[in-house]
């Protein structure tokens, strides 16, 4: 039987932000391997499927990547229709391309389905336009967490003039703040810290580069959260979408 795996982005949390293509893949799925950050509500689209949790949140219980690879392959070779469901988009800090390469190298057909990444959803849900004519001519998505402890060129980011969207930044606020200040970003640069973007429990803490660590502590900011750093982060809520309950 031909083996096929769908690598599917489940979006940021609101189940209505699934794509039609993701729903179609879930409808056909016999096995769904699901990450921690995926809202289990999306499983209503695959009532008959076996659901295998393979989450690995930083610092918590973890499923090694090699194990996930082997498990996908095993199910695919059994002829099962496998959906590998990831939070946000599979290829934005999601290791989607590693899984795609590995499966293809083992002769498995793979189809990738985009999801709405948390940074885009978080900004939109609190009324922040990530690009804005005359204010922000671009947007840069970065992760504050690297497996090899390599560092980003924060000075370049501080001076790049684009909106910064930082993933996995909650535990790294002091380093991010110091690096951007040292790189020449103004201390009063607006910052938005958005927790649980697109979910009913979404919270949004507005601050500045200098104050963000202190304000995050007072706010008790928790992961998952994204940071939006740039002039646009001062945008007020007029654009904000209602978060559906
Ligand atoms: N592939 C995912 C990102 C995975 S990395 C995507 O495209 O969105 C995990 C990080 O994503 C978290 O540490 C957090 O920074 C961010 N994240 C994921 N879901 C989120 C949510 N609902 N609200 C805020 N941040 C979220």
Automatic annotation (TrEMBL):
Keywords from the named record: Methyltransferase, Porphyrin biosynthesis, S-adenosyl-L-methionine, Transferase
Family membership noted in the UniProt record: Belongs to the precorrin methyltransferase family.
Identification of the protein by name: uroporphyrinogen-III C-methyltransferase
GO molecular function: uroporphyrin-III C-methyltransferase activity
Domain Tetrapyrrole methylase, first and last residues per copy: 4-211
Enzyme Commission (EC) number: 2.1.1.107
Superkingdom of origin: Bacteria
Pathway(s) of this molecule: Porphyrin-containing compound metabolism; siroheme biosynthesis; precorrin-2 from uroporphyrinogen III: step 1/1; Cofactor biosynthesis; adenosylcobalamin biosynthesis
Gene Ontology terms: biological process: methylation
């Amino acid at each position: 039987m031909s083996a096929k795996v769908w690598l599917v982005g489940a979006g940021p949390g609101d189940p209505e932000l699934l794509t039609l293509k993701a729903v179609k893949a879930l409808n056909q799925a016999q096995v769904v391997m699901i990450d921690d950050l995926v809202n289990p509500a999306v499983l209503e689209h695959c009532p008959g499927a076996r659901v295998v949790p393979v989450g690995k949140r930083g610092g918590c219980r973890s499923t090694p990547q090699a194990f996930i690879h082997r498990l996908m392959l095993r199910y695919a070779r059994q002829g099962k229709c496998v959906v590998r469901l990831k939070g946000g988009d599979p290829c934005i800090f999601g290791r989607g391309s590693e899984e795609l390469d590995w499966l293809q190298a083992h002769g498995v057909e793979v189809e990738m389905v985009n999801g709405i990444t948390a940074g885009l959803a978080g900004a939109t849900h609190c009324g922040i336009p990530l690009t804005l004519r005359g204010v922000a001519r671009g947007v840069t998505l970065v992760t504050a967490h690297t497996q090899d402890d390599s560092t980003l060129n924060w000075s370049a980011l501080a001076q790049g003039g684009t909106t910064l969207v930082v993933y996995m930044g909650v535990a790294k606020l002091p380093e991010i703040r110091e690096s951007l200040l040292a790189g020449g970003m103004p201390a009063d640069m607006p910052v938005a810290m958005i927790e649980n973007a697109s979910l009913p429990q979404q919270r949004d803490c507005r601050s500045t580069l200098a104050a963000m660590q202190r304000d995050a502590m007072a706010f008790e900011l928790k992961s998952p959260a994204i940071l939006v750093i740039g002039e646009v982060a001062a945008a007020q809520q007029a654009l904000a979408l209602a978060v559906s309950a």
